[in-house]
User: Which sequence fits this backbone?
Protein backbone atom coordinates (compact mmCIF):
# COMPACT_ATOMS: atom_id res chain seq x y z
CA UNK A 1 0.00 0.00 0.00
CA UNK A 2 2.74 2.43 0.94
CA UNK A 3 4.70 1.71 -2.24
CA UNK A 4 1.92 3.35 -4.32
CA UNK A 5 2.37 6.66 -2.54
CA UNK A 6 5.55 8.70 -2.53
CA UNK A 7 4.73 10.20 0.90
CA UNK A 8 2.64 8.45 3.57
CA UNK A 9 -0.77 10.02 4.17
CA UNK A 10 0.02 10.47 7.85
CA UNK A 11 2.82 12.90 6.95
CA UNK A 12 0.40 15.11 5.02
CA UNK A 13 -2.32 14.88 7.67
CA UNK A 14 0.08 15.95 10.44
CA UNK A 15 0.60 19.30 8.73
CA UNK A 16 -3.11 20.10 8.49
CA UNK A 17 -4.72 22.84 10.56
CA UNK A 18 -7.22 21.82 13.30
CA UNK A 19 -10.07 22.97 10.99
CA UNK A 20 -8.97 20.73 8.14
CA UNK A 21 -8.25 17.85 10.53
CA UNK A 22 -11.97 17.80 11.36
CA UNK A 23 -12.65 16.50 7.85
CA UNK A 24 -10.31 13.52 8.27
CA UNK A 25 -11.90 10.10 8.67
CA UNK A 26 -11.49 8.89 12.24
CA UNK A 27 -10.89 12.38 13.64
CA UNK A 28 -13.22 13.60 16.35
CA UNK A 29 -13.21 16.22 19.07
CA UNK A 30 -15.19 13.95 21.40
CA UNK A 31 -12.94 13.26 24.43
CA UNK A 32 -14.81 10.00 25.14
CA UNK A 33 -13.99 8.40 21.82
CA UNK A 34 -12.07 5.13 21.65
CA UNK A 35 -10.46 5.91 18.30
CA UNK A 36 -9.19 9.36 17.39
CA UNK A 37 -6.98 10.08 14.42
CA UNK A 38 -4.88 13.25 14.77
CA UNK A 39 -6.48 14.36 18.08
CA UNK A 40 -6.47 18.04 19.04
CA UNK A 41 -5.73 19.30 22.56
CA UNK A 42 -4.23 15.99 23.66
CA UNK A 43 -1.13 15.83 25.79
CA UNK A 44 0.48 13.15 27.90
CA UNK A 45 3.30 12.75 30.35
CA UNK A 46 6.66 12.12 28.69
CA UNK A 47 5.75 13.62 25.31
CA UNK A 48 8.35 15.72 23.50
CA UNK A 49 7.43 19.22 22.40
CA UNK A 50 7.85 18.42 18.72
CA UNK A 51 6.15 15.04 18.97
CA UNK A 52 2.75 14.88 17.28
CA UNK A 53 0.04 12.46 18.37
CA UNK A 54 -1.27 10.50 15.41
CA UNK A 55 -3.65 8.08 17.12
CA UNK A 56 -5.30 7.95 20.52
CA UNK A 57 -6.84 4.57 21.29
CA UNK A 58 -8.93 3.04 24.05
CA UNK A 59 -10.70 -0.26 24.40
CA UNK A 60 -13.87 -0.50 22.31
CA UNK A 61 -16.90 0.91 24.23
CA UNK A 62 -18.68 -2.47 24.05
CA UNK A 63 -16.02 -3.88 26.43
CA UNK A 64 -17.69 -1.74 29.13
CA UNK A 65 -20.89 -3.77 28.96
CA UNK A 66 -20.05 -6.28 31.79
CA UNK A 67 -19.51 -3.57 34.40
CA UNK A 68 -22.55 -1.60 33.19
CA UNK A 69 -24.71 -4.71 33.76
CA UNK A 70 -23.12 -5.20 37.21
CA UNK A 71 -23.87 -1.55 38.06
CA UNK A 72 -27.53 -1.94 37.04
CA UNK A 73 -27.80 -5.03 39.29
CA UNK A 74 -26.12 -3.11 42.14
CA UNK A 75 -28.65 -0.29 41.83
CA UNK A 76 -31.61 -2.68 41.61
CA UNK A 77 -30.54 -4.84 44.56
CA UNK A 78 -31.88 -2.58 47.38
CA UNK A 79 -35.32 -2.61 45.70
CA UNK A 80 -35.30 -6.43 45.88
CA UNK A 81 -34.22 -6.30 49.55
CA UNK A 82 -36.95 -3.80 50.39
CA UNK A 83 -39.64 -5.91 48.70
CA UNK A 84 -38.43 -9.17 50.30
CA UNK A 85 -37.90 -7.47 53.70
CA UNK A 86 -35.00 -9.62 54.97
CA UNK A 87 -33.53 -6.64 56.88
CA UNK A 88 -36.77 -5.36 58.36
CA UNK A 89 -35.61 -6.17 61.90
CA UNK A 90 -33.05 -3.32 61.63
CA UNK A 91 -34.04 0.19 62.76
CA UNK A 92 -35.08 2.57 59.96
CA UNK A 93 -32.24 5.05 60.64
CA UNK A 94 -29.58 2.33 60.21
CA UNK A 95 -31.31 1.10 57.05
CA UNK A 96 -31.34 4.62 55.61
CA UNK A 97 -27.61 5.14 56.27
CA UNK A 98 -26.82 1.71 54.81
CA UNK A 99 -28.91 2.48 51.71
CA UNK A 100 -27.11 5.79 51.08
CA UNK A 101 -23.78 4.03 51.68
CA UNK A 102 -24.69 1.29 49.19
CA UNK A 103 -25.60 3.77 46.46
CA UNK A 104 -22.38 5.70 47.04
CA UNK A 105 -20.44 2.46 46.64
CA UNK A 106 -22.41 1.86 43.43
CA UNK A 107 -21.40 5.29 42.19
CA UNK A 108 -17.74 4.74 43.05
CA UNK A 109 -17.78 1.37 41.28
CA UNK A 110 -19.06 3.01 38.09
CA UNK A 111 -16.58 5.88 38.45
CA UNK A 112 -13.61 3.53 38.95
CA UNK A 113 -14.57 1.37 35.97
CA UNK A 114 -15.01 4.43 33.81
CA UNK A 115 -11.63 5.86 34.91
CA UNK A 116 -9.99 2.53 34.14
CA UNK A 117 -11.44 2.57 30.60
CA UNK A 118 -10.79 6.27 30.03
CA UNK A 119 -7.16 6.40 31.15
CA UNK A 120 -5.87 3.03 29.95
CA UNK A 121 -4.89 4.30 26.53
CA UNK A 122 -2.62 3.48 23.67
CA UNK A 123 -0.97 6.40 21.92
CA UNK A 124 0.82 6.42 18.60
CA UNK A 125 2.91 9.50 17.87
CA UNK A 126 5.08 10.27 14.87
CA UNK A 127 8.09 9.05 16.88
CA UNK A 128 6.94 6.43 19.40
CA UNK A 129 4.18 4.16 20.56
CA UNK A 130 2.89 4.34 24.15
CA UNK A 131 0.91 1.94 26.27
CA UNK A 132 -0.48 3.60 29.41
CA UNK A 133 -1.88 1.23 32.04
CA UNK A 134 -3.38 1.95 35.45
CA UNK A 135 -3.63 -1.34 37.29
CA UNK A 136 -5.22 -0.19 40.55
CA UNK A 137 -5.78 2.96 42.53
CA UNK A 138 -2.18 4.11 42.58
CA UNK A 139 -0.10 1.88 40.27
CA UNK A 140 0.74 3.31 36.85
CA UNK A 141 2.80 1.74 34.07
CA UNK A 142 3.82 3.52 30.89
CA UNK A 143 5.60 1.53 28.21
CA UNK A 144 7.03 3.18 25.13
CA UNK A 145 9.06 2.14 22.11
CA UNK A 146 10.47 4.11 19.19
CA UNK A 147 8.90 3.46 15.81
CA UNK A 148 12.26 2.40 14.40
CA UNK A 149 12.45 -0.31 17.10
CA UNK A 150 9.26 -1.97 15.84
CA UNK A 151 10.04 -5.29 14.24
CA UNK A 152 6.68 -6.91 13.74
CA UNK A 153 3.00 -5.92 14.01
CA UNK A 154 0.36 -8.63 14.42
CA UNK A 155 -3.37 -7.93 14.19
CA UNK A 156 -5.71 -10.41 15.90
CA UNK A 157 -9.48 -10.26 15.44
CA UNK A 158 -11.14 -13.34 16.89
CA UNK A 159 -14.60 -14.24 18.27
CA UNK A 160 -18.03 -13.35 16.91
CA UNK A 161 -18.51 -10.25 19.09
CA UNK A 162 -15.15 -8.80 18.07
CA UNK A 163 -15.93 -9.35 14.39
CA UNK A 164 -19.41 -7.80 14.70
CA UNK A 165 -18.18 -4.69 16.53
CA UNK A 166 -14.91 -4.46 14.61
CA UNK A 167 -12.32 -4.51 17.35
CA UNK A 168 -9.28 -6.63 18.10
CA UNK A 169 -5.77 -6.78 19.49
CA UNK A 170 -2.50 -5.57 18.07
CA UNK A 171 0.74 -7.14 19.21
CA UNK A 172 3.86 -5.14 18.47
CA UNK A 173 7.23 -6.88 18.70
CA UNK A 174 10.02 -4.43 19.35
CA UNK A 175 13.78 -4.45 19.59
CA UNK A 176 13.51 -2.25 22.68
CA UNK A 177 14.04 -3.33 26.30
CA UNK A 178 10.40 -4.40 26.55
CA UNK A 179 10.06 -6.82 23.64
CA UNK A 180 6.29 -6.72 23.26
CA UNK A 181 3.60 -4.04 23.49
CA UNK A 182 -0.04 -4.99 23.24
CA UNK A 183 -3.00 -2.83 22.28
CA UNK A 184 -5.97 -4.80 23.63
CA UNK A 185 -9.53 -4.66 22.22
CA UNK A 186 -8.99 -1.51 20.17
CA UNK A 187 -11.40 -0.45 17.41
CA UNK A 188 -10.33 -0.68 13.75
CA UNK A 189 -7.13 -2.70 14.35
CA UNK A 190 -6.46 -2.93 10.60
CA UNK A 191 -6.47 0.84 10.27
CA UNK A 192 -4.14 1.13 13.25
CA UNK A 193 -1.75 -1.36 11.68
CA UNK A 194 -1.87 0.63 8.43
CA UNK A 195 -1.05 3.88 10.26
CA UNK A 196 1.84 2.12 11.99
CA UNK A 197 3.14 0.88 8.64
CA UNK A 198 2.97 4.38 7.18
CA UNK A 199 4.73 5.89 10.16
CA UNK A 200 7.51 3.31 9.96
CA UNK A 201 7.97 4.12 6.24
CA UNK A 202 8.12 7.81 7.10
CA UNK A 203 10.67 7.10 9.82
CA UNK A 204 12.83 5.19 7.36
CA UNK A 205 12.59 8.04 4.83
CA UNK A 206 13.63 10.49 7.58
CA UNK A 207 16.58 8.28 8.43
CA UNK A 208 17.71 8.10 4.81
CA UNK A 209 17.36 11.86 4.45
CA UNK A 210 19.17 12.44 7.76
CA UNK A 211 16.18 14.22 9.35
CA UNK A 212 16.00 12.01 12.43
CA UNK A 213 15.16 13.93 15.66
CA UNK B 1 -31.43 -16.86 73.30
CA UNK B 2 -28.51 -14.69 72.15
CA UNK B 3 -30.20 -14.28 68.76
CA UNK B 4 -33.46 -13.07 70.26
CA UNK B 5 -31.57 -10.66 72.57
CA UNK B 6 -29.79 -9.20 69.55
CA UNK B 7 -33.08 -8.83 67.67
CA UNK B 8 -34.60 -7.04 70.65
CA UNK B 9 -31.52 -4.82 70.85
CA UNK B 10 -31.82 -3.89 67.15
CA UNK B 11 -35.55 -3.27 67.37
CA UNK B 12 -35.36 -1.16 70.51
CA UNK B 13 -32.35 0.81 69.25
CA UNK B 14 -30.49 0.16 72.52
CA UNK B 15 -28.10 -2.40 73.98
CA UNK B 16 -24.92 -4.13 72.83
CA UNK B 17 -26.19 -5.34 69.42
CA UNK B 18 -27.32 -1.89 68.31
CA UNK B 19 -24.13 -0.24 69.59
CA UNK B 20 -22.04 -2.79 67.73
CA UNK B 21 -23.96 -2.12 64.52
CA UNK B 22 -23.56 1.64 64.98
CA UNK B 23 -19.78 1.32 65.44
CA UNK B 24 -19.51 -1.03 62.45
CA UNK B 25 -21.42 1.38 60.15
CA UNK B 26 -19.43 4.41 61.34
CA UNK B 27 -16.12 2.54 60.92
CA UNK B 28 -17.09 1.51 57.40
CA UNK B 29 -17.92 5.12 56.52
CA UNK B 30 -14.58 6.32 57.97
CA UNK B 31 -12.70 3.79 55.83
CA UNK B 32 -14.81 4.90 52.88
CA UNK B 33 -13.78 8.54 53.41
CA UNK B 34 -10.09 7.51 53.21
CA UNK B 35 -10.92 5.59 50.02
CA UNK B 36 -12.72 8.65 48.57
CA UNK B 37 -9.63 10.76 49.32
CA UNK B 38 -7.41 8.22 47.52
CA UNK B 39 -9.74 8.49 44.51
CA UNK B 40 -9.28 12.28 44.46
CA UNK B 41 -5.49 11.78 44.43
CA UNK B 42 -5.78 9.03 41.83
CA UNK B 43 -7.83 11.21 39.47
CA UNK B 44 -5.24 13.97 39.92
CA UNK B 45 -2.48 11.57 38.94
CA UNK B 46 -4.45 10.23 35.96
CA UNK B 47 -5.29 13.68 34.60
CA UNK B 48 -1.61 14.62 34.91
CA UNK B 49 -0.73 11.57 32.81
CA UNK B 50 -3.22 12.20 30.03
CA UNK B 51 -4.93 15.43 29.04
CA UNK B 52 -7.76 15.24 26.52
CA UNK B 53 -9.96 18.12 27.62
CA UNK B 54 -12.17 16.13 29.99
CA UNK B 55 -10.18 16.62 33.18
CA UNK B 56 -12.38 19.22 34.89
CA UNK B 57 -15.57 17.07 35.07
CA UNK B 58 -13.59 14.08 36.36
CA UNK B 59 -11.83 16.11 39.06
CA UNK B 60 -15.19 17.64 40.02
CA UNK B 61 -16.86 14.22 40.32
CA UNK B 62 -14.01 12.85 42.46
CA UNK B 63 -14.15 15.90 44.74
CA UNK B 64 -17.96 15.79 44.92
CA UNK B 65 -17.78 12.13 45.91
CA UNK B 66 -15.29 12.95 48.67
CA UNK B 67 -17.51 15.77 50.00
CA UNK B 68 -20.57 13.48 49.88
CA UNK B 69 -18.73 10.75 51.77
CA UNK B 70 -17.83 13.25 54.52
CA UNK B 71 -21.48 14.38 54.43
CA UNK B 72 -22.58 10.78 54.88
CA UNK B 73 -20.51 10.57 58.07
CA UNK B 74 -22.33 13.62 59.46
CA UNK B 75 -25.71 12.18 58.43
CA UNK B 76 -24.79 8.89 60.13
CA UNK B 77 -23.68 10.72 63.32
CA UNK B 78 -26.99 12.58 63.44
CA UNK B 79 -29.24 9.63 62.60
CA UNK B 80 -27.54 6.88 64.60
Assistant:
Amino acid sequence: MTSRRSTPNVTKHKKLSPELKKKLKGHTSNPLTSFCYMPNHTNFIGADKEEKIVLLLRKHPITNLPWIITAIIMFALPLVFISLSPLNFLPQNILLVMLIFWYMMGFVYIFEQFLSWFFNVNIITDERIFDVDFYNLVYREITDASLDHIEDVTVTVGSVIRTIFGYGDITIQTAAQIPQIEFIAIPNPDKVAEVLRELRVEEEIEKLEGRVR
Amino acid sequence: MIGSNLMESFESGQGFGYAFLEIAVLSAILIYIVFAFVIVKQVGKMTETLEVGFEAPLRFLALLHFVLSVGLLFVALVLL
Notes: The helical segments of chain B are 2-12, 15-49, 55-79.
